[in-house]
Each structure stands twice: as C-alpha cells, then as structure tokens.
Amino acid sequence: MSLRLVLMGSGRFALPTFLSLFESDHEVVGLFTQPDRTGRGHHRHAHPLKEEAVARGTPVFQPENVNKPDPLTRLRELNADLCVVAAYGQILSEQLIEIPKFGAINLHASLLPKFRGAAPVHYAILNGETETGVTIFQIEPKLDAGPVLSVVKTPIGPKETTGELEIRLAELAAPLTQKIIDQIETGTVEQIPQHLAEVTRAPRLKKSAGAIDWTRSGVEIERHVRAMQPWPGPFTFLVQVGRQPTRLIVLDVQPTDINASSDPGRIVIAEGQRLIVRTGEGCVEITRLRPEGKREMTADEFLRGHRLGPGDHLNAG
Description:
This protein has 317 residues and is an alpha/beta fold. It is 25% helix and 25% strand. The longest helix has 25 residues, at 162-186.
C-alpha cells in the first residue's frame, strides 16, 4: 500500500524532499504552493516546485489563503492521506489539518523546540549555535508546536552562511521524511511532545534586519554577516565628509586582535589589503564586500578605488 500525498511548500528548502517524494512508492496527488510573484522588471520568479509538478502532471494550487473554503474543497477532492509541508509560509487551520487521514507533517530547519518560526537558520547562526538540524513534527494549529516525529542533527560550520546551511539541511530532510512517511503508513511512528520550557523564537525577518550594528561585539557582527546571507543581505553605509553615503554589502568579516580607541563603526586601518573597523568590543577586518550597484570585491580592490581618510566611518544608515 502507498499513501496519497499532498505537498505544501514554496521555498528551496522544500525542493529535495518534494523531488524525492515524486520518485517514491507513494503517490503525490497535488501541490499547494504560493502564488506566482512578479519581481523587478515585471519578470516572474522561477518556481521550481511548480515546474516539477506541472511536468509530472500533478495538479497545482496557488491560493493566497489555503484555509479559505475553495482551497479546502480542493484538498478534500484530492482524498489525501497526508499533507507534507515545508517552507510553505502559511499557517494551517485546524479545519485543514483534519481533512487528510493522517493530518499533516512539517519539515522544520531547527532542533525544535529551539527556534520556532519563519527564520530558524538565521537565528541559529546569530545566536552562535554550533549544531542544528531538521525536525519533522505533526502539525497542530499552534505555530511549530506539534509532537516531534524525528530529528537529524548536523554541526554548523564556522564560516557557513544561512544560504549554505539551508542547502545542507534541505538535503538532510529528504531521507528523513521518507522514513517518517513509511512509519506513518505502517503505524510505527512515535510522537514525542516538545518541552515548553525550552522554546525559543525565530520570527520572520524584515529587510532592515540586514543593517550591521557596529556597537555589537566583533564576534556578534561576524555571525550577523553570515546569518544575513543571502537574504536580507548584511549592509552598512560608508560615511565620508562632503560625499553622499555609499551603501555597502559586507560579505565577510573576521574579528581581529587589533586594539583601537575609537567609536564603533570608525575605520581604524584602511591601507594595503586591510580594512579594519572598530566595533563595540574589539575590531573586525572586512575581507569581502560589494558596493551597491557594483560587483563583489576584496578589501584590497575596494581600497584601490576608494580613498578613505580620518573621520570616515560606517553606520547602519
């Protein structure tokens, strides 16, 4: 026997798992995903999940609100045994969860109950976690609160960005999901309640979250720069007397043992290959950056094209 699966997801985190389910012994009977979005220049963003489903003849639904009557009717018509959810971006109502025979399971990119919410990978790096993973849990109406079905763990690399870590976690999620679906089918899956005392939050980030706060310590700023890549992008502004501030995307920084008595954000060394900035605790060296509208460059390349002088500093704008 195989289960009839409905997939619900939109982001790249869902892609490896959803592709594996299309190739599994189970039957994918529908995909619910976010509506197509138009980007700059009025171009449609690529939507790989939708493209895969269409290519396989799987029905695709893109409701603005999956909990409205029409999407619920469509879900009932699919006669699904289980909904598999990953990076969908919508909270499922109790009414929806009750439609499939076995309810719905969710793939979450953290070790629940840590970092419940929309940005678990960002917050794991921001908080200096050395380990994270993927948790599969049974969905309940409350956000990321259902019982845990299985977990896979992995260390966080010392230089990993959010984007890089998300790719690894997405690959780890696929075999784990297959295992849990098989256990649901045979009735052997175990449910482990989450410990409420250990709950931490990872709410959705705004674009402004990318701003670098130079009053933070060098260690915290290094984490911030990694956590904000690729979105919303870690940024700052170069402020020089008599010039308009220049927006910089900072791509790599390293805490240094250089000491300097100056205000946070002050550029203390800008010569040769070295661009050193004072923070709230110690200094950091910027090694890679991208001025807005230009290509990525090393600090050496940047300094050859930008003359920096006394009083020049960086701030969040």
